Amino acid sequence: MNLRDLVYGLYERRVDRRLDHDQVPKHIGVILDGNRRWAKASGGTTVQGHQAGADKITELLGWCAETDVEVVTLWMLSTDNFDRAESELLPLLSIIENTVRGLAADGRWRVHHVGTMDLLPARTQAVLKEAAAATEGNGGILVNCAVGYGGRQEIADAVRSLLHQAAARGTSFEELAEVVSTDLIAEHLYTRGQPDPDLVIRTSGEQRLSGFMLWQSAHSEYHFCDVFWPAFRKVDFLRALRDYAARHRRYGG
Q1: CB-count burial class (<10 Å; 0-12, 13-18, 19+) for 144
Q2: pLDDT tens, 20-68?
Q3: Rounded Cα distance, 177 and 104, in Å
Q4: Is-catalytic flag, 81?
Q5: In which element (H, E) is residue 153 found?
Q6: Residues 120-176: pLDDT tens digits?
Q7: Which residues is 200 bridged to in the sheet?
Q8: For a surface tag, which of 40, 102, 193, 195 has the fewest beta carbons within 10 Å of its beta carbon?
Q9: What percent of the chain has a predicted confidence (pLDDT) above 70?
Q10: What pTM did the predictor assign?
Q11: Which residue in the list 5, 22, 33, 55 is annotated as catalytic?
């Protein structure tokens, strides 16, 4: 172990000891950003960057389990990513499929897909559905795999689902207009039945949501971290929780 690792280890334990577990967020959303830039800075390929980012996910979930987080939403692939060249998109989809299979095989998590299935290849759809079915009875963290996800698309899909439901029940537009509410729309989101994220973390230094959980994050706290996702460390995670707890104590109640 070199000196730098020793110092980080000591600092990590210090932050961990001072963390108030009563103030830990129950639902964390994570924008896994910076894989390609990490690869470029490391002299690797884009595929290697995406794979390094995928490998980091299990570490993150382990840290979440240690700190009593109950729900984690991982933005793995946005609807905008489908504009990328096939030479990048196809290997990325393969990495995502392998990652989801690994999460299901782990046995500690419940896997749930959030996003639109229509944009995804049949193979990716099958992997996501099989993982959700295989882990449905697991008691660990609920892991939302946001694949083919866009915040505006989610809201559009929720409204479409609401309209289809109303039509199936024979409800007129006039009757629907009288009862539509934020709670009713929320019942048709990809995350229906789940708590909204308390904390949203974005890596790579970008300070924007880019459409991530637009509806659900209305009251979330945000933490923007300068490190690229594959380089995200436990100490970075603990800092995010520490900052969240400080803000929660200041503004809560």
Answers
A1: buried
A2: 667 799 999 999 999 999 999 999 999 999 999 999 999 999 999 999 9
A3: 41
A4: yes
A5: helix 151-168
A6: 999 999 999 999 999 999 999 999 999 999 999 999 999 999 999 999 999 998 999
A7: 29, 222
A8: 193
A9: 89
A10: 0.91
A11: 33
Region of residue 68 (phi > 0: left; psi between -120 and 50: alpha; otherwise: beta): left
Dist CA 204 CA 34 (whole Å): 5
**Residue 219 in tokens:** 């009251």
H/E run at residue 129: helix 122-135
- Active site annotation includes 33: yes
157's tokens: 């899909």
Domains of the chain: 25-150+196-251 (3.40.1180.10)
Locate 155 and state its tokens: 């809201």
Catalytic choice (16, 81, 106, 243): 81
Give φ, ψ of 65 to 5 degrees.
-65, -35
Say if CB 222 and CB 45 are below 8 A apart.
Answer: no
Q: C-alpha angle with apex 243: 240 to 246, nearest 5 degrees? A: 150
* Cα gap 216→235, rounded to integer Å: 27
In degrees and rounded to multiples of 5, residue 223 shows phi and psi of: -130, 120
Q: What are the start-end ranges of the E strands in the chain? A: 27-31, 71-78, 110-114, 142-149, 199-202, 221-224
C-alpha 213/C-alpha 104 separation (Å) is 23
Per-residue pLDDT at 145? 98
